[in-house]
């Protein structure tokens, strides 16, 4: 039978056991093979439910898990692991990068967070570090347990304790300290004996540490506990954080004689205690705080921290009657790079841009990633516009040279708007807004430059007001047009549905597309009236085609979030349907996942009311949002529309097609209809047919068309336009 010591040796020498959890088989296998290449004992769990079963049957040193998994998600697996195997380390490997998810995972016990797609070497280094740390923690606990069981090991506690053990005399001079101080701080014990303990306190903590030891209320039942920074010796890291627990020594319980009193000072010891290194904990706390106020991709301050620093800088500038500048930076040509080379290369470009921009800054300046490819820069305490002008020129020049991204040479520029306090605004919001306005003036003049905000720029906001006025008149003058994009059965080549799409026949600007006016309609709350006109016209047109020989023709209508969230949404929609005697069973409304998840309870009730009337519900752009099986089960969903970005990924053997495979398989499993958007090529159509996705729409069958063209189209028995797009 093995002794306890032998068990410890066996436990510490065995190959670390790692549980890998993911609901995507290919990624699961790739991650497991990568870890096995480093001789780890790896167990694979396909999904959260299997992971929980494995945690009940076997002990693991480490678990790598995804967050977004059906049925049992990563947080539930973390809970199971914490309950059953508290010693099992947890690393999250997830595509979810929102701050709430990262923070929640760290609070639940995750030791690290790796974002998909991961770098193999970075992942292996992280695993090695966590496994090593877990081993040290387990070793520490075993040692502590053995020391507590036997008084015979007291000497071992002193000489081999992972903490610094010390004794002080009445005046605070060190009369004993164990040799742990040398491995942690670099001081030989002989060098410290006889010196006052403030000798190793960081200068910032000397007063607090000295006062704490002199407090009158310190006793055996009320020890002094405090966190301080201790200085290291020589070329080591300047300071480390320690938690010190100090007890008074009762002379009656330890009557010291000349032989037993504190060694190197010759004075009786009056305090004893331990100093525990908590540097890693403090660094972890700092890391969590960093994540709350920084962009994880570029490591720059985020919008919240930037605004906080700007507010403080405005206060100082106002008090000292100084100036400051705010710059709004927008990268030119970034979207082209992102769309052409992909988001991974786009992320690398943002990191490279950040590195160059930071080299142009002064000490005290704050560069922030405001969102997407937008940055903001705070220049406090400037003498005047010339200081800001000089920085702007440096920033523009810094981005002139090309960036190397893999085998690609990429060029980007930057458009910079500048607002100076107090001339361009006296509040945080005004300074940011006016810098943004100035930046758009740079964009309008050809990009890659800078401009200071001036009052005259506000005149150009009249264009926006003019467009808003024209849009209000358009609603009165019936200038809106409804175009229809056919939804086609690829097997029979027949039109089975029509998606209604709005256009604006502007009297001066010509035909405008939704991107030109829908954001303004949303902002000005005109989208409700606009949608009502579209629905009325679509019901008239499609109702006429239904009554003239196409009884199964389906009308698909997109609805905005503000419409769906309106308390009278169902009543208003059904009033329009009834007014045109349109058959509800032929109507399909399209909403996005985000609209549903914003208020699941309220939206689900409205959708159930609509479904009860016969109206069909479609999820638009499926796969780009939550993609949750939970709401698909709970709600009366009839159709999933595959987002065109996934359809575009269908090329010869591309991995992107796997997403389409998964969505189609999910739809079939849930007995839902499925429509693929953005079909443009024979290859895409053939691939979708092979998956069993037989309803498609896109330029392969032509663009959206006015009602007159649809009338001619429906007159034929089947589509003859498979190549007219």
From TrEMBL:
Domain of life: Bacteria
Alphabetized SUPFAM superfamilies for the sequence: CheY-like, EAL domain-like, Nucleotide cyclase, PYP-like sensor domain (PAS domain)
Alphabetical UniProt keywords: Kinase, Phosphoprotein, Transferase
CDD domains reported for this sequence: EAL, GGDEF, PAS
Domain PAS: 150-202
PANTHER family assigned to the protein according to its UniProt record, in alphabetical order: BIOFILM ARCHITECTURE MAINTENANCE PROTEIN MBAA, DIGUANYLATE CYCLASE DGCP
4-aspartylphosphate PTM positions: 66
InterPro entries per the UniProt record, alphabetical: Biofilm_reg_signaling, CheY-like_superfamily, EAL_dom, EAL_sf, GGDEF_dom, Nucleotide_cyclase, PAS, PAS-like_dom_sf
Domain EAL: 464-718
Response regulatory domain residues: 17-131
Domain GGDEF: 322-455
Record protein name field: EAL domain-containing protein
Organism: Marinobacter daepoensis
């Amino acid at each position: 039978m093995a002794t306890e010591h032998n068990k410890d040796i066996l436990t510490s020498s065995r190959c670390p056991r790692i549980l890998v959890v993911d609901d995507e088989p290919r990624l699961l296998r790739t991650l497991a093979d990568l870890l096995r290449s480093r001789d780890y004992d790896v167990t694979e769990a396909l999904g959260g439910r299997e992971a929980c079963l494995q945690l009940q049957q076997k002990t693991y040193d480490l678990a790598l898990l995804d967050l977004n998994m059906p049925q049992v998600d990563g947080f539930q697996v973390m809970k199971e692991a914490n309950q059953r195997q508290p010693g099992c380390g947890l690393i999250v490997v997830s595509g979810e990068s929102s701050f709430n998810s990262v923070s929640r995972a760290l609070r639940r016990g995750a030791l690290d967070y790796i974002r998909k797609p991961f770098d193999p070497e970075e992942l292996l280094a992280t695993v090695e570090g966590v496994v090593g740390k877990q081993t040290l923690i387990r070793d520490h606990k075993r040692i502590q347990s053995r020391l507590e069981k036997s008084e015979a090991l007291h000497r071992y506690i002193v000489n081999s304790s992972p903490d610094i053990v010390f004794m002080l005399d009445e005046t605070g001079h060190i009369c004993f300290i164990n040799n742990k101080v040398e491995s942690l701080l670099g001081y030989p014990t002989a060098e410290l004996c006889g010196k006052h303990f403030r000798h190793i306190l960081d200068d910032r903590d000397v007063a607090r540490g000295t006062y704490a030891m002199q407090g009158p209320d310190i006793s055996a039942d009320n020890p002094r506990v405090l966190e301080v920074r201790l200085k290291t010796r020589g070329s080591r890291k300047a300071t480390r954080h320690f938690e010190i627990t100090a007890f008074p020594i009762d002379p009656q319980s330890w009557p010291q004689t000349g032989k037993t009193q504190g060694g190197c000072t010759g004075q009786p010891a009056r305090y004893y205690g331990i100093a525990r290194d908590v540097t890693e904990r403090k660094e972890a706390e700092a890391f969590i705080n960093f994540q709350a106020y920084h962009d994880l991709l570029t490591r720059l301050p985020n919008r919240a921290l930037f605004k906080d620093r700007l507010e403080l800088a405005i206060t100082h500038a106002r008090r000292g009657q100084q100036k400051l500048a705010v710059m709004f930076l927008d990268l030119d040509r970034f979207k082209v790079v992102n769309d052409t080379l992909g988001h991974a290369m786009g992320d690398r470009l943002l990191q490279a841009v950040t590195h160059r921009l930071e080299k142009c800054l002064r000490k005290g300046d704050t560069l922030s990633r405001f969102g997407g490819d937008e940055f903001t820069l705070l220049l406090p305490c400037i003498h005047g516009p010339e200081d800001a002008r000089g920085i702007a020129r440096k920033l523009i020049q810094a981005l002139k040279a090309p960036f190397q991204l893999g085998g690609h040479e990429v060029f980007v520029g930057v458009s910079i708007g500048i607002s100076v306090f107090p001339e361009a605004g006296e509040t945080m919001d005004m300074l940011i807004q006016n810098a943004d306005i100035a930046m758009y003036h740079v964009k309008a003049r050809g990009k890659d430059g800078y401009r200071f905000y001036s009052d005259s720029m506000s005149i150009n906001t009249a264009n926006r007001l003019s467009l808003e006025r024209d849009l209000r008149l358009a609603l009165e003058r019936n200038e809106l047009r409804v175009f229809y994009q056919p939804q086609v059965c690829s097997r029979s080549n027949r039109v089975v549905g029509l998606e209604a799409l709005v256009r604006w026949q502007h009297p001066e600007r010509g035909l405008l597309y939704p991107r030109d006016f829908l954001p303004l309609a949303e902002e000005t709350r005109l989208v409700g009236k606009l949608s009502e006109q579209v629905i009325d016209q679509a019901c008239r047109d499609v109702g006429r085609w239904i009554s003239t020989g196409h009884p199964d023709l389906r009308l698909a209508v997109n609805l905005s979030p503000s419409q769906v969230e309106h308390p009278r949404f169902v009543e208003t929609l059904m009033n329009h349907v009834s007014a045109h005697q349109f058959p509800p069973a032929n109507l399909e409304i399209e909403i996005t996942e985000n609209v549903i998840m914003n208020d699941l309870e309220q939206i689900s009730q409205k959708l159930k009311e609509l479904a009860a009337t016969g109206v069909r519900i479609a999820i638009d752009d499926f796969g780009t949002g939550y993609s949750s099986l939970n709401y698909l089960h709970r709600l009366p969903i009839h159709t999933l529309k595959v987002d065109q970005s996934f359809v575009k990924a269908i090329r010869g053997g591309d991995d992107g097609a796997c997403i389409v495979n998964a969505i189609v398989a999910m739809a079939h499993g849930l007995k839902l209809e499925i429509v693929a958007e953005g079909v443009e090529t024979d290859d895409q159509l053939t691939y979708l047919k092979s998956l069993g996705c037989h309803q498609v729409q896109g330029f392969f069958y032509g663009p959206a068309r006015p009602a007159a063209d649809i009338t001619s189209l429906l007159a034929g028995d089947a589509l003859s336009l498979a190549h007219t797009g």
